[in-house]
Amino acid sequence: MSGSGERLLSDSVYDRLRALLGEPGFEPGARLPAETQLAERFAVSRPVLRQALLRLRAEGLLFARKGSGNYVGALRRPEGPLAYGPLLNIPDIRSFLEFRCVLEGEAAAQAARRGGAEDLEALHQRRVWYENALEAGEPGMDEDVAFHLAVAEAAGNRFFVLTLQALRAHMLVGIRLIRELSGQPLARRLSGVRDEHARIEEAVRARDEQAARPAMPAHLKGGIARLFGP
Fold first, then answer.
1. Where are the domains of the chain?
2. In angstroms, rounded to a whole number, what is the distance separating the alpha carbons of residues 150 and 82?
């Protein structure tokens, strides 16, 4: 199955599984059936199912207990503590990207140290999704954010994930502005992002936290350079 086809199938499983949350047997705190059972229920492969599960975990709707499986999380998270407010101007974008350099650089280092086989699989798949989206002529913004969430998920610390979730709208605004306002040619910008994503994945998969920690800020600083110039 092609990457795009697999992504669409995973999206379908995500929607169907998301609709079950809160129903009998899928209440907050309930343990989900085993992956083999869920894969049979939705008539998909386990890799496709895992993509949907990882997305739900990244959104805080599921959480994993090592050696025990997936559990339903709180379906409604309170607002307030992570309400950052909107990005108001171009200097805000620079400050936002600088903040992400610190946050996501450490997340990448932790991902290299702690990421399991499923985390690494998800990281690779989301990078492929991004590249497939670009090749299909799609904006790829959601796929770009999903790649960063996959790094946070692999770090094994829910606060990285929760913070990036709270910043999701800001991330999309930043990506959009870089694309609209950058003076660099489109092909050059996209090639740069692809190369940076690949270096991040390579460092995480090699479990080289000394390489992963600077690879993520280098990517985000690349965004600053693409918007503001060197």
1. 3-72, 90-228
2. 20
